[in-house]
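hey so i finally got around to running the thing on that chain from the lab meeting. sorry it took forever, my laptop kept dying and i had to restart like 3 times. anyway pasting the input first so we r on the same page abt which one it is
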Amino acid sequence: MAASVQMRMMIQRSRRPFALTTEAAFAVEGVWLIKANFSFRKTVEGPLRALVNQARLAVMAALTRQALLGWGLGANTVRVRLKSGAHLTEFPLPGKTLSSNLLLL
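ok and heres what got predicted. didnt touch it at all, straight out
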């Protein structure tokens, strides 16, 4: 039986043009589920490409940290549920993805 573990990370800094929160826990035996919420702030200014790139890197780093925690606690599988505005998507996060993302941390 998997231990009931829930971890929450909040990455919200006033100078960032977006809000990003993550929390993770074992959903079922061996499955680590990361729930991430992302949104741009209403007052965001700047080149769109730069804002999207900054947000993408922050999301990848946050998901990588949470996934590493799950693997360390014995997860067999990591899944991500990402919500941005009204859009919700769920996808697996394979271990091979993590090794390429470690440079972000």
